Amino acid sequence: TGAMTMTDFYELADTTREGLIYPARSMKVDLEKAPQLPLTNYMMESPVLDADPCIGCSKCVDNCPTNCIVMDLGPQNKKMKSGKVRNVENPYFDYTICIGCSTCVKVCPADCLHMEPISNSSSSGLSEEGASNEA
């Protein structure tokens, strides 16, 4: 090809830089001929909330890397350990986004979150109720 490469000594290259450029059309994949793989959720565990000890601090929401947790209205007029009574928001999980990293469990100061194995019958990580978002 006549192209030179820089080494301790000059030598001829097998290809030119232009020869390494491929048009997008040449990399097109025919999806009808591609092997069809089943969609699988590789996450082995998902976070589950025990609502009683939850103090609604939202540390799980603030630390979630995928933003799959939202705070929603929880128990009303809940008596806290300090004796105060207040309305509490509880975390709800979108298990279609959750990656099972357990960051929420690690940062929870009330220890109200724990990880549970996902059943084989549910490949999406959702509970039997479906889109209830309650675990």
CATH class of the domain at 45-117: Alpha Beta
Name the structural class: mainly beta
Strand sequence of the main sheet, in spatial order?
1-2
- Give the N-to-C terminal Cα separation: 64 Å
Uncertain spans, ≥5 residues at pLDDT below 50?
121-135
Q: Please tell me what the overall shape is.
A: elongated
Quaternary structure type = single chain
The CATH architecture of the domain at 45-117: 2-Layer Sandwich
The portion of residues assigned to helices is under 10%
How would you describe what is shown here?
With 135 residues, the protein is mainly beta. It has a domain at 45-117: Alpha-Beta Plaits. Helix content is 7%, strand content 21%. The strands form four sheets. It has a two-stranded antiparallel ribbon. Strands 3-8 form a two-stranded antiparallel ribbon. Strand 5 (78-79) and strand 6 (85-86) form a beta hairpin. It is elongated and about 80 Å long. It starts with a strand and ends in an 18-residue tail after the last strand. Residues 121-135 have low confidence and may be disordered.
Keywords:
two-stranded antiparallel sheet, disordered C terminus, 4 iron, 4 sulfur cluster binding, iron, iron-sulfur, two-stranded antiparallel ribbon, mainly beta, metal-binding, Alpha-Beta Plaits, 2 helices, elongated
Summarize the structure.
Residues 45-74, 89-118 form the 4Fe-4S ferredoxin-type domain. The chain has helices at 59-63, 103-107, and strands at residues 4-5, 11-12, 45-49, 69-73, 78-79, 85-86, 89-93, 113-117.
